[in-house]
Amino acid sequence: MLLQFDFAVSRLRYLKAAMTEIPSFRPEGLLPADIQSLITSAGPVRADYVSRKTSLDGARALRRSACASLHAACIDFNQQARNAFRKNPTVMECLERLPTNDKSFQQTLDRADMALVQWAALPLVGTPPAVFSVAQGVAVLTLAGMTALHAAAETADGDMPAAEQDFLLQQARLHGKQAEMHDQMMSALRQGRSQFPKGSAEREVIEAIQTKGRKTRGAGAEGGAEPPVVP
Questions:
Q1: Residue 178 lies in a domain
Q2: I need a labelling partner for 73 at 20 to 30 A (CA). Which of 16, 34, 82, 127 fits?
Q3: Is residue 64 one of the residues assigned to a domain?
Q4: How many independent structural domains does the chain possess?
Q5: CB 142 within 8 A of CB 133
Q6: In a domain, 231, yes or no
Q7: What is the pTM of this model?
Q8: What is the pLDDT of residues 15-39, one digit of tens each?
Q9: What would the pLDDT profile of 56-82 be if each residue is shown by its tens digit?
């Protein structure tokens, strides 16, 4: 997306240079300074788009990470609780009823919900009797810790809509600015081709705008001389 946007900006720079070289080339009565204003206005729109996209990517990463941590905690709880209470048929039956095949974010939340309820109902273990906890390397996961992981996942999930809407709004603004630049570029080219005959120096300068623009977009782009008009 930014490749096409930057291509549109680059073409405007060539248009401004052509207008500077050809004093009689004033598409729609505009001056080179007017084209520069349009170029300048593209900068903040692009920067805001990058900022919103970065924020959205961060929110998505946080949500994935929170879900992964909660999922791992559920697995550890299930395995270690079954081992600790293997001689307690009543507890084992309850543990066996807990879901284990969570494939989505919501399924992991649901699995953790049920695990937390079961965890709170577990009898004491060990000598002396103590509240059941889960060993994770050198750390210990308690019921409160699992509850905190669940809350963190819910918070990360709740932050997603705002981040997505902020991004979509700025993406729409980026589309709008790209369409504005493309429209101005195509209008100028149409006038230049109509105003100056083939073979004239002015026409060659104007036609060179496309050539240079095509080269700018060519690296890594999908191909084609003209950028699409963004709806």
A1: yes
A2: 127
A3: yes
A4: 1
A5: yes
A6: no
A7: 0.81
A8: 999 999 999 999 999 999 999 999 9
A9: 999 999 999 999 999 999 999 999 999
